Amino acid sequence: MASAALKDELDIVIPTIRNLDFLEMWRSFFEQYHLIIVQDGDPSKTIKVPDGFDYELYNRNDINKILGPRSSCISFKDSACRCFGYMVSKKKYIYTIDDDCFVAKDPSGKDINALEQHIKNLLCPSTPNFFNTLYDPFREGADYVRGYPFSLREGVPTAVSHGLWLNIPDYDAPTQLVKPLERNTRYVDMVLTIPKGTLFPMCGMNLAFDRELIGPAMYFGLMGDGQPIGRYDDMWAGWCCKVICDHLGLGIKTGLPYIYHSKASNPFVNLKKEYLGIFWQEEIIPFFQSHNFSKDCTTVQKCYVELSKQVKEKLGKVDPYFLKLADAMVTWIEAWDMLNPPNKDSANASSK
Amino acid sequence: MASAALKDELDIVIPTIRNLDFLEMWRSFFEQYHLIIVQDGDPSKTIKVPDGFDYELYNRNDINKILGPRSSCISFKDSACRCFGYMVSKKKYIYTIDDDCFVAKDPSGKDINALEQHIKNLLCPSTPNFFNTLYDPFREGADYVRGYPFSLREGVPTAVSHGLWLNIPDYDAPTQLVKPLERNTRYVDMVLTIPKGTLFPMCGMNLAFDRELIGPAMYFGLMGDGQPIGRYDDMWAGWCCKVICDHLGLGIKTGLPYIYHSKASNPFVNLKKEYLGIFWQEEIIPFFQSHNFSKDCTTVQKCYVELSKQVKEKLGKVDPYFLKLADAMVTWIEAWDMLNPPNKDSANASSK
């Protein structure tokens, strides 16, 4: 079984400010894996983890101690802090999940093993260069359809698996306000590759990735305490990852698996966090859509540093926040390379 | 109800060589619409149409009489002849279906009204400029997710609705030979927009489109009698339509509705028809992927004529067949404009 095979190759990263009771529900699916818990907020608070889980826990004091001055790139009082967990992991794969996400049921009523589906997604190739109308051609019972070029059928390595949510959909504050009662009840039995050249809104609630392939680009930015915006952490990571994956010939899949998202966050609080992002994204999206990497960008790190320069140059005009973010992007890469000496992970990433 | 509203605005085009017994199964869904039957092969043969359907039927003699020397652009002994039906229609919308396609059932066991779903798809906007992870945001119970730029939420007009097939999947001959028993049993409850810049394999089996928006690009090429290839008619139309839609800011949707495809065609016969196409598509796809229209191309007709010149120049080197095809593309536009005087349809198309 795919998931059993990855027992020693995958960490589960959970950002939290509370006791992790939600893990009880995931016990049968998560218990065999190692957890990296990133405690947000007050470091003196004790987070309870149910018995029987294998975990390490980092609070703000730990982050400051490990990264020193470079800890400035890790957000505080925002779930964006989760990316610290990506950095300290030594595994090939990461699965990250929010602590208000429960096990969903498929249409037959069976519990969905989200992690197993993510592993399936990551272990088979992506097809970003041409759309297959029967979706993931590597799925059992499916294949490439007539007219799909044979030279493209090998696919490309999959770097990211983006899962979805039943019950509370991942809406922005304005949509939450307008449709407070909307629930996602539709189970779409499908995985597909986001085509090359197309951006998407990557949600960090239920997300897996290959950290050897794309880890250094999975930076969740500067959000929360002392920052002018929130709720764009995963979006920022998604836009950066997508353009880098497109450049390096890697794939991003979206669709299955679903988790059950239990609770809508407060739309009024969200609006306050989001409103600058809502303006800014109108300039950020064209920036990413028109972005091209130079030929020297042969590793994720090189791509990311070049991207940070462009962010400074082109988005710095939008708001000084982006100057700070661009610097933090560089700090993030320095911190990543400090904890993941380049002769190991980066060499792998660049050989793909 | 959407479908009732379009009663006078949609024609159903069916290419056939046999009696249309399959219409009995579609009676309750099709009876209110006008059918355009394009009889392929021996024109002296009589095609029986079940009582109660409103139809017009064209055989090869009719096509020759109506188009004169321009009838050379309409394929013979190949279902590509169906595009003649698109040309003689005077309606805004076309639905085309193969005569071996039956009514499929949804997971609850209910008969699927394919036409009604196509109309839904065509009547609401497409979103080619950014991927929405909950798929069609205009569907009931769905919306744009967090991080989707607000400036793109109006969408663009939908020109094409590409439906899928349960039972026999639309595989090429090599895949048919390797997987003779594979059946598509998975009902994916979803419609999505094919992103801008991404090509897809458009199948003509279960296809609807807005002929005012994209009709002149829906040419199914030269296939069958006297031609070196077959089974690339709908693919050709799909590639041309996609690049033109991308250029003109129109959308193409794929997914629901499903029909039940009853019978696999003979893979040995198919291999003979396809094998040149299998080679050629390796050059055709990069041609379309790198194609850019000039700014003068403000209507579908202008785009199509410019595309024909590029086909001649760039694909003519691949095989002389493409020189012939490029000429036929121009003839097709002349014939289209003859039957659809530009002051009516083209003016509409260019105003979008």
TrEMBL record, chains A, B:
The record marks R146, R153 as: Required for activity. Keywords: Cell wall biogenesis/degradation, Glycoprotein, Golgi apparatus, Isomerase. The keyword Transmembrane does not apply. One of its GO terms (cellular component) is cytosol. SUPFAM superfamilies: Nucleotide-diphospho-sugar transferases (SSF53448). The keyword GTP-binding does not apply. One of its GO terms (biological process) is cell wall organization. Signal peptide: none annotated. It holds the Pfam family RGP. Its EC number is 5.4.99.30. GO terms for molecular function: UDP-arabinopyranose mutase activity. Glycans are attached at R146. It is an enzyme of class 5 (isomerase). It catalyses: UDP-beta-L-arabinofuranose = UDP-beta-L-arabinopyranose. InterPro entries: Nucleotide-diphossugar_trans, RGP, RGP_fam. Probable UDP-L-arabinose mutase involved in the biosynthesis of cell wall non-cellulosic polysaccharides. Belongs to the RGP family. This is UDP-arabinopyranose mutase. It comes from Solanum bulbocastanum (Wild potato).
